[in-house]
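ugh ok fine here u go
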Amino acid sequence: MSYNLLYAVDSSGSTVHISQAQRGASCGCVCPACGDLLVARKGDEVKHHFAHTTKDDCENGYLASICFAFKKAIARLGRIYLPAFMKNRTITDEGSGLHVIIPESRIAIEKVDITKRGGAVMGLMAYYKSKPLIINILTSYSTEKSRDMAKVRAVGLPVIEIDLSREEDINDELINRLLTAQSDLVYWVYNKKAESIWDAMTAKCSKLSVSGTDNAIYTMGCPIPKMRTDGIYCYIKTKCAMCEYFFGLYGFGEERYILCSRQSVITEPADLKLTLKERKAKYNVK
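structure:
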């Protein structure tokens, strides 16, 4: 993939896409990372891009230019779309069941800043209701994809990621779409509130031991008779994984277990505010 600059800062201080710039150095554009003068290369053979005049490459230029473009778009829109925070409750593709911990939303952005580390642009910090939200722009699939989740949790701020690592044609239309509508390229990395809710839900689950090998793993502790084969075995991948009370398979080997919320009758965050009697009535559980 090419990492030629697609955005630059023009003489008025505004972020511009290469399609908006005049050919050559007449636009007076500079690199948002190093401040070096750029030329707009808009020939017939190579994909249009900005190039530095005094050097071949700028280590932070590409990410910085994309971050500046997103900042401009967020400021213009005033609101952005946040995807739902979900936890997968299945272990098979067929099940694909998800617990929605926090639903999708659109939030009004009060301010958005460029974040830096050691002088290099790293991402964005947006503020809504005076609360910060880190927006990480992923531009290199091989290196920037890895992260230290312990450090992310220690910081404690919510983090969403926009994965552009495999997108070559980044433009205003794509940026606008990613900020305003659901996309697989935008997802949560961390949300302390959502993780706390998930912890509260799983804390009310029962641990059921798992036996068997490979695809034939099962539990004999399933509390729902109709889910059990021969009245005894509940196979994890074909039955448990499809059940709304299933909260995941954990552990290894003989230490494996599943979390099941059937006894506490919880499937969604709203259930935490109800009594057991109210939850049983809600799900018609005797």
